[in-house]
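Task: sequence design from structure.
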């Protein structure tokens, strides 16, 4: 009996010990300050890393240095045969040269109001005289205080300015926009020679020309190329004026594309030929550009300014 009693007491004692132990708890990680600090530091690093990644993307072109910066000393010098009968701005006196001087003065007045360097010259329809106006305006500017002028034939479909200057038409603007030639390769200047008049000497020293090249059916795509804006940006520091002759506005979209990169636009209308609705439509097509005004070309009875000052074209 004693052994049975001892066994019962032992069992009762074990049950009491079991009742004194705490209830089992749900297992969880004990709090550790070192681990907590490490976790907080890691979270802060991850947040800082994610903040750096979320910074705004900077366009590379903003800080990119162009390796093909323009070196004007490398512009080729070629023989030109100026068509003097179509270049009245080279005359020393007469009503025609005075009209271009007057236009030049208006351009300078506009530049006093707002920045103005690159000017596109266009018209509503062909045969209204835009190439004649742009070429003579460029020469008139080149004769004023030895201003450096860049003349660009932007009409890559029917380029004609090279005929007025008597020079080569290739390579030209179309070649540059297509990536086939560098900017300096499409630029040219006139060589000097003995016996040059004051007007032709000013052209040789101050005028740089880019011919049209042959854009053909690709002229519309080429005119919309960002390389034209790059051309203006590269040339601007080296020239006082940049004059661009372009295709007519209404038949094709080339002029509208080129105008985006220019500071202003001159519209040409031909006296007795350009209809008022055509001029209105041309102005409407360029409503997103800075239209400087209209130039009325081929006026039969021009003001006799020359006679007022005591000379005219017929007198020496």
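Answer:
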């Amino acid at each position: 009996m004693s052994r049975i009693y001892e066994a019962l007491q032992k069992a009762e004692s074990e049950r009491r010990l079991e009742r004194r132990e705490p209830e089992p708890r749900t297992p969880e990680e004990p709090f550790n300050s070192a681990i907590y600090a490490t976790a907080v530091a890691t979270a802060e690093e991850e947040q800082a890393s994610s903040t750096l990644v979320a910074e705004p993307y900077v366009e590379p072109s903003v800080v990119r240095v162009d390796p093909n910066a323009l070196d004007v000393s490398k512009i080729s010098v070629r023989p030109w045969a100026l068509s003097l009968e179509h270049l009245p701005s080279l005359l020393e006196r007469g009503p025609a040269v005075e009209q271009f001087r007057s236009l030049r003065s208006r351009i300078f007045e506009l530049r006093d109001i707002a920045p103005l360097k690159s000017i596109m010259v266009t018209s509503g329809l062909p045969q209204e005289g835009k190439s004649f106006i742009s070429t003579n305006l460029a020469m008139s500017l080149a004769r004023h205080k030895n201003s450096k002028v860049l003349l660009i034939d932007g009409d890559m479909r029917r380029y004609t300015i090279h005929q007025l200057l008597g020079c080569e038409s290739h390579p030209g603007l179309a070649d540059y926009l297509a990536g086939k030639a560098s900017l300096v390769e499409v630029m040219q200047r006139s060589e000097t020679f003995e016996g040059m008049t004051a007007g032709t000497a000013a052209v040789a020293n101050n005028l740089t020309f880019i011919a049209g090249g042959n854009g053909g059916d690709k002229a519309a795509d080429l005119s919309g190329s960002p390389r034209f804006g790059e051309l203006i940006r590269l040339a601007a520091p080296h020239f006082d004026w940049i004059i661009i002759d372009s295709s007519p506005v209404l038949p094709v979209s080339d002029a509208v594309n080129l105008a985006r990169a220019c500071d202003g636009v001159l519209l040409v209308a031909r006296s007795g030929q350009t209809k008022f609705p055509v001029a209105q439509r041309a102005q409407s097509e360029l409503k997103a550009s800075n239209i400087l005004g209209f130039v009325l070309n081929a006026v039969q009875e021009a003001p006799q300014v020359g006679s007022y000052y005591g000379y005219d074209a017929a007198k020496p």
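Strands lie at 76-78, 118-123, 149-153, 187-190, 207-210, 241-245, 264-270, 291-297.
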